[in-house]
Amino acid sequence: MTPDGRSVAFPAEQARLTLEAGDAVELAGVRLELSAGGLVAESNDGQALASHQSFWLAWSQFHPDTELWVAGAG
Length: 74
Hints:
By secondary structure, this protein is an alpha+beta fold. The protein has one domain (8-68). It has helices at 12-20, 56-62; strands at 8-9, 26-27, 30-35, 38-43, 67-68. Strands 2-3-4 form a three-stranded antiparallel β-sheet. Strands 1-5 form a two-stranded parallel sheet. The radius of gyration is 12 Å and the shape is globular.
C-alpha cells in the first residue's frame, strides 16, 4: 500500500529483473528494493512499508482499484 493507503501491485519477477538490470521500480510513492534475495517496499523517503506477496487473480477480485506497475511504462 502507498503511504496514503492506496493499493499498488508489482509483478514480482518483472520487478526483480528490472532491479537487477539497475533500473528503478516505483509507483505512486512506493519503490521496491532488492533485499536478501527478495523484494522490500519503501516509501520515497525510505521508510519501510508493509507488503506481502499474493496471487494477482485473487487480489484483484477483492481490490479492483489496485494500481498495477508495468515494466518499461514510464
